[in-house]
UniProtKB/TrEMBL annotation:
UniProt subcellular location: Cell membrane; Cytoplasm
WD repeat spans: 171-206
Membrane-related topology note: Peripheral membrane protein
UniProt domain V-SNARE coiled-coil homology: residue ranges: 986-1046
UniProt entry keywords in alphabetical sequence: Cell membrane, Coiled coil, Cytoplasm, Exocytosis, Membrane, Phosphoprotein, Protein transport, Repeat, Transport, WD repeat
Name of the protein described by the UniProt record: Syntaxin-binding protein 5-like
């Protein structure tokens, strides 16, 4: 880490070579080194808008932070020595670089060239020493004398080097290895941290032995001998205050007998010692001080602690050292992200509503002060429309993020596991065998921003319906529904192709899964017989206090059937206007009226067809007759993968990595770790599951049959075999009748077919505009309404009561249906296909969404081969086809999603969300949206030396480093030692700026600067050549005068 105390900017480097720069909340920047080598050290050029990074591949880089997108100006690659430590004094252009060989080199950060001045290790240590002192772990100049450089070697030796006389002035030696060194601001003392958990305090002019030895966490024996050794103190900082005792802050140093104790940061202040426990191992820490001058009282006010998975800032100004509340989105991976959804152009009142309930969740005990890292300026930055990201996590939690700006801001957190009983020990959880761990993990999120209805499906085959409320409520008993989904028939695995005969049964490993619901597996038997009608999770029996925000309305669970666990849910939809929830898996479909808390529909997939089933289904056969055979099964796939995909979850525990919802399961080629389709292109990606799963659900008000003259509420259902079925919904009138009269559900007989599993269904009107599903506006559920108001709200719902009373519509509608392979636009009510486009033949679509872009709508698709494609609607004309990202990880497939205004996101790593845009207008505005890291700030005045110090020579001693390290005095460094590499932070760095007058002016200004710099360099070279010629002339003249009167034999 590094901190600029004037600009108030924090820089963090990672092991993967990336840089994160943080300013005030909302000002954040991400940079990546090309080499991806780990960052070992960072140094700010304080208040100059520049940063030096040292990498593990022995390169130094100079970053220009004065532009919105930081870029590298210069790089220097060391060829012969390994970099171990760097130090850049305040207001100096000379960087000290320590190496593994124990030498110190000096780099000019303006030109990024080496000086000829080198401090060799053998000259620094005592001549009597016969061993190498080890690599350099510390370099710093004396705060009161810039001409004295303190060099720390790993072995325990320190040297105070006099830069002017080029020799060691004092040498300090200690038995234990050194990890870090810190100066007292007066320059008379320094403290070292050692590998045995001790701190040694040295007086500069007393090199024989330390003035004091402290082992803060070591037990002192009674005989007064040396304290017992402790763990190494990895870093120490020594900070002074005008009006109080100094602070000594260090990490590590705990006693070896504290097994299992969490990592600690220790703060010693006067006679008090505070040990601050951290949740994760400490990577680095630094103290934030009021002044950039090392020779002044530092007045520390906070400590920034970088942990492996978090960033903590401790307030040193309050008793108890509370931490500041972190405004940065660093806890996205607090629990592994299992799914995410992206919503752009949300209602404007939604973010304030979520923020207000989220503010009530904040824990007490935070510091009352403002966040201390507050540099930089915001960009124009937020979009003109609100954006929200929802992440679902392995522990069952959900987080709502404000994504309107470039950075994320957490709005609200919730835990779905609260509605379930928590098992106290392993013996009390017999029913959660469907997953090995994380039984509450979120798989699917369905959210209606307008009505604020939220539904989540979990890995344990459970669905929870939530309503939003601003008031706290206590629920005496959670409403629960249990559903028994059966699958009685083996269906044929054959979509609409002529390549595969309809009568061929698919036997083998896939068939075992198909019949698992009705044929008990021996591995699932238990001491009390077969498990049946038992849910995977136990609902909480005690009253549940639900805070403001999302509150559980009803919990639906699929139950075990004849000893087999329920199959995970593959699709989910909710409609607030109808009061209905529907979900499906590879067994069938279930519909729930969450207003009346009743199950309306519970059918196997085949039962949806009725007598119109286009497939020839095979009746179940006894398990013993099943044998592994070719058929339609993939014989090219590795046996390990096949077993994993086809095993019953009872016989083989599922791994921590959650399996995808069914429509997202591609074939995985184990050999090259890439996704490929080894079967015929006409076969869908999940045909190996052998049963027809529900993959798409969409509530709408449209034509259900060819003969319809008006629209009516219905549900469109898509399956893995490319079939679309329509279910008619007959809803009772609003008001009290909705609470008492049943909803009548019936199949319409309409069947549409595509190639590949259905992914998305949507509807357009005759103008090509998207018809959004009906929804109710949000209203506070925990407030008793007047009856007239309630009836009025109910009557405002855009719900048709029956076909006879529905609004007459002469114009047609268009159904847009997208599958893994193709997209169709179908005219309604005639059900004629007017547009058809085969999206891919060699790959398959993973995610498809109908999104709004620049006032119109389009179909956006992400394929397994990495292509992002968009198509116009309703004509399905290709608009964009970009080979963006080859699918190399199931995480991408699980989390990739599109949203309005040409944006998308996915989880690029377990801890990072990547947002992308394919909109030209967003790209053009991106530069303005970015914040500025550098702002013009005057450097604070240097500390006053005082009259007597000035008179008698006290105070800080300055040093003319140019005179010592410049080429004229020190000469040139060896060319083979390091190689200079020009960066792209000059004129190239502005090419990404927005085009226009400002961009042209910026480019012209930098071009002039570079031209002026080159002219200046040329002038300097010319002057040097003239000086050299003049010197040569003088020497020649002197030689001529000397030899003028000599005879030939005198030479």
């Amino acid at each position: 880490m590094a901190f600029d105390p004037v600009q108030k900017i924090l820089a963090i480097g990672t092991q993967s070579g990336s840089l994160r720069l943080f300013g005030r909340p909302g000002v954040e920047c991400y940079c990546q080194h090309d080499s991806a080598a780990g960052v070992i050290q960072l140094q700010f050029l304080i208040n100059e808008g520049a940063l030096v990074s040292a990498l593990a591949d022995d390169t130094l880089h100079l970053w220009n932070l004065r532009q919105k997108r930081p870029a590298i100006l210069h790089s220097l690659k060391f060829n012969k020595e390994r970099i171990t430590f760097c130090h850049l004094p305040f207001q100096s252009k000379w960087l000290y670089v320590g190496t593994e060989r124990g030498n110190v080199h000096i780099v000019n950060v303006e030109s990024f060239t080496l000086s000829g001045y080198v401090i060799m290790w053998n000259k620094a240590i005592e001549l009597s020493s016969k061993t190498h002192p080890g690599l350099i772990v510390h370099i710093s100049d004396n705060p009161m004398d810039e001409g004295k450089l303190l060099i720390g070697f790993e072995s325990g030796t320190l040297v105070l080097w006099d830069l002017k006389s080029k020799k060691g002035e004092y040498r300090y030696s200690y038995d234990e290895a050194i990890h870090s060194v810190a100066w007292h601001h007066e320059g008379k003392q320094f403290v070292c941290s050692h590998s045995d958990g001790s701190l040694t305090i040295w007086n500069v002019k007393s090199p024989i032995k330390p003035a004091q030895i402290i082992t803060p966490h070591g037990k002192l024996p009674k005989d007064g001998k040396k304290a017992e050794p402790c763990k190494p103190i990895l870093k120490v900082e020594y900070r002074t205050c005008k009006s109080g005792d100094p602070f000594i802050i260090f990490s590590g140093g705990l006693s070896y007998d504290t097994v299992g104790r969490r990592p600690c940061l220790t703060v010693m202040h006067g006679k008090t010692t505070a040990v601050l426990e951290m949740d994760y191992p400490i990577v680095d820490f630094l103290t934030l001080c009021e002044t950039p001058y090392p020779s002044d009282f530092q007045e520390p006010y906070a400590v920034v602690v970088l942990l492996e998975k978090d960033l903590v800032v401790v307030d040193l100004g309050q008793n108890g050292y509370p931490i500041f509340e972190n405004p940065y989105p660093l806890d996205i991976h607090e629990s592994p992200v299992t799914c995410c959804e992206y919503f752009a152009d949300c209602p404007v009142d939604l973010i304030p509503a979520l923020y207000s309930v989220g503010a009530k969740q904040k824990r007490q005990g935070y510091s009352k002060k403002e966040w201390p890292i507050n540099g930089g300026n915001w960009g124009l930055g937020t979009q003109s429309y609100p954006e929200i990201i929802i992440t679902g996590h392995a522990d069952g939690s959900l987080k709502f993020w404000d994504a309107s700006a470039i950075t994320l801001q957490v709005l609200y957190k919730m835990k779905t596991s609260k509605v379930f009983e928590k098992s106290r020990n392993k013996e009390e959880k017999p029913n959660t065998d469907i997953v090995d761990e994380d039984p509450y993990a979120i798989q699917i999120i369905t959210w209606c921003p307008e009505s604020r209805m939220l539904c989540v499906a979990g890995v344990s085959a459970h669905v929870i319906v939530y309503k939003f409320s601003r008031q706290e409520v206590t629920t005496e008993a959670i409403q629960m529904l249990e559903i028994r989904l059966l699958y009685e028939i083996n269906d044929l695995d054959s979509p609409e192709t002529d390549q595969i005969p309809l009568g061929a049964p698919c036997q083998g490993p896939n068939s075992q899964t198909a019949n698992s619901q009705s044929h008990p597996s021996t591995s699932s038997s238990s001491s009390d017989g077969l498990r049946d009608n038992v849910p995977c999770l136990k609902i909480r029996s005690t009253p549940l206090k639900q805070g403001a925000g999302y509150q559980a309305e009803v919990v639906i669970q699929l139950v075990w059937v004849n000893g087999e666990p329920p199959q995970q849910i593959s699709s989910l939809a909710v409609n607030s206007s109808y009061g209905l929830l529907v979900f499906g898996n590879c067994n069938g479909i279930a519909m729930v009226d969450y207003i009346q808390k009743t199950v309306l529909l519970n059918l196997g997939t085949i039962e949806l067809y009725g007598s119109n089933d286009p497939y020839q289904r095979q009746p179940k056969s006894p398990r013993k007759t099943r044998q592994t055979s070719g058929g339609l099964c993939d014989i090219n796939e590795g046996s390990t993968n096949l077993d994993d995909r086809c095993k019953s979850p009872t016989s083989a525990k599922m791994s921590r990595k959650l399996s995808l919802p069914t429509e997202l399961k591609p074939d995985l080629d184990v050999k090259d770790n890439s996704f490929s389709r080894s079967r015929s292109s006409s076969v869908t990606s999940i045909d190996k599951e052998s049963r027809e799963a529900i993959t798409a659900l969409h509530f709408c008000e449209t034509y259900t049959r060819k003969a319809d003259t008006c629209t009516s509420p219905c549900l469109w259902v898509g399956t893995t075999l490319g079939t679309v079925l329509v279910i008619v919904l007959n809803l009772p009138p609003g008001g009290d009748q909705r609470l008492t009269q049943p909803v009548i559900v019936s199949p319409s007989g309409t069947i549409l077919r595509l190639k590949g599993a259905i992914l998305r269904i949507a509807f357009l009107d005759t103008t090509g505009s998207l018809i959004n599903p009906a929804h109710e506006p949000w209203r506070e559920p925990n407030v008793q309404e007047e009856k007239d108001d309630k009836d009025k709200c109910r009557k405002l719902r855009p719900v048709s009561v029956s076909p006879s009373s529905s609004q007459e519509i002469n114009e047609t509608q268009y159904a847009v249906i997208c599958s893994e392979k193709q997209a169709k636009v179908i005219s309604l009510p005639s059900q004629n296909c007017i547009y058809k486009h085969n999206i891919t033949e060699t790959s398959f679509v993973l995610r498809a969404d109908i999104v709004g872009l620049n006032g119109s709508i389009c179909l956006a698709c992400f394929c397994a081969n990495g292509h992002i494609m968009t198509f116009s609607l309703p004509s399905l004309r290709p608009l964009l086809d970009v080979n963006y990202l080859p699918l190399t990880d199931m995480r991408i497939a699980r989390t990739f999603c599109f949203t309005n205004n040409g944006q998308a996101l996915y989880l690029v790593s377990p801890t990072e969300i990547q947002r992308i845009t394919y909109s030209q207008s967003t790209c053009e505005n991106l530069q303005e949206m970015l914040g500025e890291l550098f702002t013009p700030v005057e450097t604070p005045e240097a500390p006053n030396r005082g009259f007597f110090k000035g008179l008698f020579g006290g105070g800080a001693q300055s040093l003319d480093r140019e005179e010592l390290f410049g080429e004229s005095a020190a000469g040139k460094a060896s060319r083979s030692l390091a190689q200079h590499i020009p960066g792209t932070g000059g004129i190239e760095g502005v090419k990404g700026a927005a085009s226009g007058v400002a961009g042209e002016l910026a480019r012209a200004r930098i071009a002039l600067d570079e031209r002026g710099q080159k002219l200046s360099e040329l002038e300097e070279r010319t002057a040097a050549m003239l000086y050299s010629a003049d010197t040569f002339s003088k020497h020649a003249h002197e030689m001529m005068l000397k030899c003028k009167d000599k005879k030939w034999y005198q030479f």
